[in-house]
Specification:
single chain, 196 residues, mainly beta, six-stranded mixed β-sheet, four-stranded mixed β-sheet, 14 strands, elongated
Length: 196
């Protein structure tokens, strides 16, 4: 391959790994276009990341991480394999994002029960979207409309007027944000069960 500076072969002389002058590495690929490119024609092949022996305790993880640069961790993100309870088989996967000042924050969790939590690890259904206190300007779920140049958008949220309420929202303009507010509320359920 052009730019190849090192080639590794197995004991039978078969080409296995290529290192290019631009820093790209190919496994079973002598012309890698990315920093690491792995080629396989075998079903189920992939990358396996494990602990060693019984070293993965409760609350530990093994990570695939991404960073802005090698010296700047802002804009970083990660995919983590986590052990919620080392005494019970079954792990979970989480996705983490950065708030641009170096603080990594859990964004989504897929539990060992195959439930999904967004902004929460205390998952209370197959899909749990948690809207934290203080996020009053954001609907928990937004459904946007791209038809005809963008119509009014819809949202589903809690705590629109008071703690424990529920509302279906509609933006006041085409392409707008369905902000939790009385003006945007189309269906409202009071914490006591009254519907309006």
């Amino acid at each position: 391959s052009s730019g190849e500076i090192l080639r590794l072969r197995d004991k039978d002389g078969n080409h296995k790994v290529s290192f290019l002058s631009n820093g790209n590495v190919g496994i079973n690929n002598n012309s890698p276009a990315k920093k690491l490119e792995i080629s396989s024609g075998t079903d189920g092949d992939g990358i396996l990341l494990t602990g060693v022996g019984s070293s993965m305790g409760t609350g530990t993880s093994r990570n695939i991480e991404f960073s802005y640069t090698d010296t700047d961790t802002s804009y970083a993100s990660a995919i983590k394999f986590e052990v919620p309870n080392a005494a019970v088989h079954g792990g979970q996967v989480s996705i983490w994002t950065d708030n641009t000042v170096g603080t990594s924050t859990r964004a989504m969790t897929i539990s060992n029960a195959q439930s999904v939590g967004i902004n929460t690890t205390s998952i209370k259904g197959k899909l749990d979207v948690y809207r934290a206190a203080g996020q009053s300007g954001t609907a928990a779920i937004a459904i946007t409309n791209g038809e005809g140049g963008g119509g009014r958008n819809w949202g589903i949220s809690t705590e629109v007027v008071r703690s424990g309420d529920f509302a279906i929202l509609q933006s006041t303009s085409n392409g707008g944000v369905p902000t939790p507010s009385s003006a945007n509320t189309k269906l409202y359920i009071h914490p006591s069960g009254y519907v309006g």
